[in-house]
Amino acid sequence: MSAQPANLPDAGVARSLADASEIADARERRHSRLLGRERTVTLLLGSAFVFTATACAALIPSARPFSVTVAALLVVVYAVVSQVEFEIGPGSAVPTQLVLVPMLFVLPLGAVPLCVAGGLLLGGVFERLRARRHGERVAVLLCSSWHSVGPALVIGVLAPGAPRWEHVSVYVLAFVAQCGLDAGAVIVRHRLGREVPISRLAPALGWVALVDAALAPVAVLVALAVFDEPAAILCVLPLAGLLQNLGTQRRRRIDESVMLGQAVQDASRVARSDPLTGIGNRLAWQEAVERARRSHEEDGSPVSVLLVDLNRLKETNDTYGHDAGDRLIQALATALRAAAREGDELARIGGDEFAVLLIDADEHGHEEVAKRIRRQLAGLAAGEVTGSASLGAASCPPCRSLDEAFRLADERLYRAKLWARSTNP
Q1: Where are the alpha helices (DSSP H) in 130-277?
Q2: Which end of the chain is more exposed for a tag (fewer CB within 10 A), N or C?
Q3: By mean pLDDT, which of 2-6, 237-241, 250-254 is the weakest?
Q4: Is the peptide bond prior to 397 cis by the omega test (within 30 degrees of 0)?
Q5: Which of 293, 306, 350, 257 is nearest to 23 (CA)?
Q6: 138-180: pLDDT as tens digits
Q7: Residue where one domain finishes, among candidates 216, 245, 268
Q8: Domain that holds residue 356
Q9: Considering Cα of 105, then 42, then 123, then 182, what sign does the dihedral take?
Q10: Residues 234, 297: one domain?
């Protein structure tokens, strides 16, 4: 059985709530352990990065000497800036472009990927101390370091040395390599590790690339200053503080959207749920029928209707009281829920009348479900009070429309009730 989401009045609102829900899921994952395939893919991708970054350090030539002090300063600033987040779908955009670009001109190019990984891991330690990330999730940050490999290779091969305006085309190519490797790592980890469709990842990847592109010109200017005076990298911290404030405000708006989305879902669930049995009510049934009608008209997919009516409910109420009748109705709902298939729509459409909508089920399919329902009904009881129910079913096709199938199922239900009365007067 499936409970359908609310029909929101505006598609934009629906998309906004869906985005907020996705971000809420991403937050929850950050506090959970790595399990199953996601764990395997993360460890393999992270290990591959460590191997590649080590190879870069060994193989990419550089005339610039390695300074432990400068490297440590850049790693710490990178870690601080990595704490500034703009949450987007299953991930987030961080303004580390402001530090990555200066790294490419101040450090030996082969050392850049390892230093980027060091900055992200140090930032992960900060998050762990603030209880914002599970310890195992720190390994994910190695996968996030792949973006640094592309620009280090491109600039190391084509334009090593001080930043020069005549090398702009090389820097653009380096940026493209950065975005490509970043997108590739994200797709591998989420597509293979969590089976997330690429269509869901693409918008977030686009936003991350846009943020990096917007920050790249500023980062180049910072690189020009840092090339002669590495301590100038500290000038990015006020800008990072401003971006942190904007990110915090965005997070608050997302929190409000998540709360709104939960309230909408709760209201929708209440509006479409029968309070006595917990299954769908007449509104949920009418919406399910309309969806099935559209589906049948568009692609001709079969659909079946089963109607079930509790026999002699009035007599049960008169003899044992309405509480006993309510318990019998609840027992019938439980029996139908056990017999219906996953994805079928089950609803209470009247006082003692229930309906089951079988999607992609022809006459043979509805007969199989009807048999299971009859087996469940054979022992229908609520405490010492026993009961029985009648059933009528029809399919479209052979009925020409869903409305015709509903009428035929209703006629068959009526005949079944007459037969039940005649055999048990």
Answers
A1: 140-143, 149-158, 168-187, 193-194, 198-228, 236-271
A2: C
A3: 2-6
A4: yes
A5: 257
A6: 888 999 999 999 999 999 889 888 888 889 999 999 999 999 9
A7: 268
A8: 282-423
A9: positive
A10: no
